Amino acid sequence: MDEIRVWKWMKKEEENKVFLCQTLLHHYSPSIDKDVLLLTASIEGIKYEFQEKLLGGAALDATGVPLPEDTLSVAKQSDAVLLGAIGGYKWDKNEKHLKPETGLLQLRAGLKVFANLRPATVFPQLVDASTLKREVAEGVDLMVVRELTGGIYFGKPRGFGTNENGEETGYNTEIYAAHEIDRIARFAFEVARKRRGKLCSVDKANMLEASMFWRKRVLAFAQEYPDVELSHMYVDNAAMQLIRNPKQFDTIVTNNIFGDILSDEASMITGSIGMLPSASLGDSGPGLFEPIHGSAPDIAGQDKANPFATVLSAAMLLRYGLGEDKAAERIEKAVMDTLNRGFRTADIYSSGTKLVGCKQLGEEILKSVESPVPAGAV
Ligand SMILES: NC(=O)c1ccc[n+]([C@@H]2O[C@H](COP(=O)([O-])OP(=O)(O)OC[C@H]3O[C@@H](n4cnc5c(N)ncnc54)[C@H](O)[C@@H]3O)[C@@H](O)[C@H]2O)c1
C-alpha cells in the first residue's frame, strides 16, 4: 500500500532531475500524481525518467526501518521530492522509532527543509463546500509558513519517565535556537512581500518562554522589511480568528506544532483537507512537496479520496522545486478546469455538481491537463 517512487528528470538541457514520490496506490489508481506529471512534462517538453524507492510503512515491511539509507541518499541527490502520505492502521501500534511517521520526520530533517508553505485558498467553485458561511469563506487566500524542523517535535529532552510521586510521565521540549527562528522569519517576510505584504506571527508569548523568544527574534526583522506589515497573535486567538474572519490573514508564520494545527484548521475553510498542497523548502537542496493530508486510512480502497491536493503538490513541485512555472500553471489551470466542469469527490460535493470517485476525477484532471475541455462538453 505504502509506496514511494524516485524520479529522475532530465530537463531540456539534459540536466538530471530526481525526485521521490510516494503515492497511495490504494487511493490513486492509476497513480494520478505520476500521470499528471508525466503528461505535463511531455506536453511542456521536459524529459524525465524515474525509479521507485521505499518510505514509511512499505519501507518498514520491506527493510525494517521507516527511512532506508538508500532512500535518504537518493532524496538528497534529487532536485525535488514528491510524497503522497505515509501511515496506516497496520503500523499504528509500532514503537515510535518503527512508525511510518518517524520516517517522514527523518526525511524532513535529513533534507533540512525548515520552511513549510501551506496555502489555504478558497476556490470560487468550492465556496459552498466550506463549513463556514459563504460571506466568511469567499475570497480567503492565505499562506501558513510553518517552521518544520525544530520545536517540540524535535526538542530534547523528550520521553517517558516517573515523577517525584512515582507516577508515570510523558514529556517533550519546546525549544528554538536563534538561528532557527531567524531563518524562518526571514523566509516568511520574503513570502509576505511577494503576496499582499501582511505577516502575522503566531505564538503563545503570554505563557511560553520559547514563544517570548520567538516573538523577540521575529520583531527584530521588522526594520529590514518596512514594506511588510507585521502583527503578532496568540495561537488561541489565531485559532478563533481563522474561523471568525479568515480574510484578515495574508501570511502567517508560526512554529512547528502551532503550524501543524492551524494549517489543518485553515484547510477546512477551503472545504476539504483534500484540496491543500504544501511545499517544504530549505536553504539549498531539494524541496519536499506533499499534500497536507495523511493517508486517510478510513476511506482507503473506497475510491473516495480527493486527488486535488496531490495534484496541486505536483504543481508546487514544478514551480518551487524545478522552476517550471509554465508546467505548474498548466496543472493549476487543469484543476480549475476540472472544477469548472463540475466534477467533485464526496468531501467537496455540493448539490448541482457531479459526484465522482477518485479514479474518475483523476481521469478528468488528465483530460484538462491535455487540453481544457469546454464546460458544455460533459
Ligand atoms: N504527511 C503525511 O504523510 C501525514 C500527515 C498526516 C497524517 N499522516 C498519517 O496518516 C494516517 C491517518 O491520519 P489522520 O486520520 O489523522 O489524518 P488524515 O489526513 O489521513 O485524515 C483526516 C480525515 O481527512 C480525510 N481525508 C484526508 N485526506 C483526504 C482526501 N485526499 N480526500 C478526502 N478525505 C481526506 C480522512 O478520510 C479523514 O477523515 C496516520 O497514520 C497519520 O500518522 C501522514
UniProtKB/TrEMBL annotation:
InterPro entries tied to this protein:
IsoCit/isopropylmalate_DH_CS, IsoPropMal-DH-like_dom, Isopropylmalate_DH
Keyword line = Amino-acid biosynthesis, Branched-chain amino acid biosynthesis, Leucine biosynthesis, Magnesium, Manganese, Metal-binding, NAD, Oxidoreductase
- Source species, domain of life: Eukaryota
Query: Which reactions are catalysed by this chain?
Result: (2R,3S)-3-isopropylmalate + NAD(+) = 4-methyl-2-oxopentanoate + CO2 + NADH
- Show where the Isopropylmalate dehydrogenase-like domain sits: 34-365
Q: How is the cofactor bound?
A: Binds 1 Mg(2+) or Mn(2+) ion per subunit.
Q: What class of enzyme is it?
A: oxidoreductase
Q: What is its EC number?
A: 1.1.1.85
Q: In which pathway does it act?
A: Amino-acid biosynthesis; L-leucine biosynthesis; L-leucine from 3-methyl-2-oxobutanoate: step 3/4
**Required cofactors, per record?**
Mg(2+); Mn(2+)
Molecular-function annotations in GO? 3-isopropylmalate dehydrogenase activity; magnesium ion binding; NAD binding
User: Could you give a single Gene Ontology term from the biological process aspect?
Assistant: L-leucine biosynthetic process
Which family is it part of?
Answer: Belongs to the isocitrate and isopropylmalate dehydrogenases family.
Spell out the subunit comment.
Homodimer.
* Task of the protein: Catalyzes the oxidation of 3-carboxy-2-hydroxy-4-methylpentanoate (3-isopropylmalate) to 3-carboxy-4-methyl-2-oxopentanoate. The product decarboxylates to 4-methyl-2 oxopentanoate.
In Swiss-Prot or TrEMBL terms, this protein is called 3-isopropylmalate dehydrogenase
Q: Which organism is it from?
A: Lupinus luteus (European yellow lupine)
